[in-house]
Amino acid sequence: MPPKSLAAGNWKMHGTLASLQEIESLVQATSDNKHSCDVLICPSFIYIAAFAERTKGTNVMIGAQDCHAHASGAHTGDVSANQLADVGASHVIVGHSERRADHTETSEQVHAKAAAVHEAGLISIVCVGETESERDASKAEAVVTGQIIASVPDSATPENTVIAYEPVWAIGTGRTPTVKDVADMHDSIRATLIEQFGQAANGFSILYGGSVKPANAKELMSASNVNGALVGGASLKAEDFNGIIDAYR
Ligand code: 13P
Question: pTM to 2 decimals?
Answer without folding.
Answer: 0.99
